[in-house]
Amino acid sequence: MPVSDARPRYAWVLSGRYTPPQAGTAAQPRAEFEAFVEKFGAELFSLTTLDGEVPYLARLLHSAGRPRAALAQLVQSHAGSFDAIIASGEDIGVPLALASLLRARKVPLHMLFHGHHLDSRKLRLLAPVLQRMRHVHFHCLSEALRQRTIDVLGIDPARCHATGHAVDTNYFNCTAANAANVISSAGAANRDYATLAEAVRDIAVSVKIAADSTWVPPQTATPMAGWPAHVELRSYGNYARLRELYEQSRFVVVPMHEAAHACGYAVIAEAMAMGRAVIATRTAAPPDFLQPEITGLFVEVHDINGLHGQIRNLLDHPDKAEALGRQARELIVAFNSLEHFCDRLEAITNRTLETFSRGEEILSKAATVTPAAR
User: Are the CB atoms for 184 and 252 separated by under 8 Å?
Assistant: First the structure.
């Protein structure tokens, strides 16, 4: 349908369960979907939606142990009520795309794309199908990831967008510098804490690692044999304690193994929003917002000596660490706040609606031309 002056109707689909925070509960950072739903009046679907009344096919898929396929079927059964569907990631975005094949009228689908499955055989086998799905767009977390998505899946560049990453800059906000002799790290997915431990072995600084992750199952944080005594590795339990850790840190280190997908973005963005300089491993898909010598520093994969040197550099030059942290906060607020991200995503989505509708109209007219006219 052509886009009118009325606000487009959006559906946002989460790959997991969601329960709105209750009044009186401890404050925590808002997610991008919460900000988008509130600002643009989107309807939210999640696995929790399957607890209600659902169509037969969705119910059948759910009972067969395929909850995301069931959710995708449920959303597509309501797709006619929306101008566009936004998926929180490829784990639900791809099932939504496949479910849309059953619909005659396609509704534009915009999936946030992390790239975790770009090397999977299953996704590569689906690539020819995704290439032909003009209504499916990929919103990559960085330009490097956008380029790799184009190269690996063969997606039309016009349907791949470097939309970026979002962070709650109101929650993660600290304007005061902290003189504590502490550096920190956080996260559990793809982390290379062994390299960090070796890099600081002979440096007199307290290193505190919050070994928690939203993306991987909870793990017991256990230091390896020979772990330096001044390196603490444990769970911090919640966002409030994590924010306190960032606040007391002189800067934040995010060591990672090689990865071709988005990795470490959340911790890097949170630390930058807190006004802390960041030293991170340069993977094949680095975040756009970590700019060397402007908002932080990069080291190479498994480079103990390089990481040691950069840590020593910032400890010996606290003014540099403070300047990088200040510039990091400014960049994140200007480009990666929830508000800027939601506006950017909505602008791209809304702009593509008109192009898609025009193309569908042309195809529809072509399909109704009689054989004689052809």
Answer: yes
Confidence of residue 22 (pLDDT cuts 50, 70, 90): confident
Domains and CATH numbers, the chain: 10-166+338-367 (3.40.50), 182-335 (3.40.50.2000)
pLDDT the model gives residue 357: 58
Q: Residue 3 CA to chain centroid, in angstroms?
A: 28
Tens of pLDDT, residue by residue over 115-169, are 988 989 999 999 999 999 999 999 999 999 999 999 999 999 999 999 999 999 9
Edge-to-edge order in the sheet of strand 231-234 = 231-234, 206-210, 182-186, 252-254, 278-281, 296-299
Q: What is the 3-state secondary structure (H, E, C) of the chain?
A: CCCCCCCCCEEEECCCCCCCCCCCCCCCCCCHHHHHHHHHCCEEECHHHHHCCCCHHHHHHHHCCCHHHHHHHHHHHCHHHCCEEEECCHHHHHHHHHHHHHCCCCCCEEEEECCCCCCCHHHHHHHHHHHHCCCEEEEECCHHHHHHHHHHHCCCHHHEEECCCCECCCCCCCCCCCCCCEEEEECCCCECHHHHHHHCCCCCCEEEEECCCCCCCCCCCCCCCCCCCCEEEECCCCHHHHHHHHHHCCCEEECECCCCCCCCHHHHHHHHHCCCCEEEECCCCCCCCCCECCCEEEECCCCHHHHHHHHHHHHHCHHHHHHHHHHHHHHHHHHCEHHHHHHHHHHHHHHHHHHHHHHHHHHHHHHCCCCCCC
pLDDT band at residue 362, thresholds of 50, 70 and 90?
very low
At 255, which amino acid appears? P
Q: What is the pLDDT of residues 263-293, one digit of tens each?
A: 999 999 999 999 999 999 999 999 999 999 9
Task: List the structure tokens of 86.
Answer: 């936004």
Cβ-contact 304, 198 below 8 angstroms = yes
Q: Which residues of 200-223 are buried (b: 16+ CB within 10 A; e: fewer)?
A: beeeeebbbbbbbbeeeeeeebeb
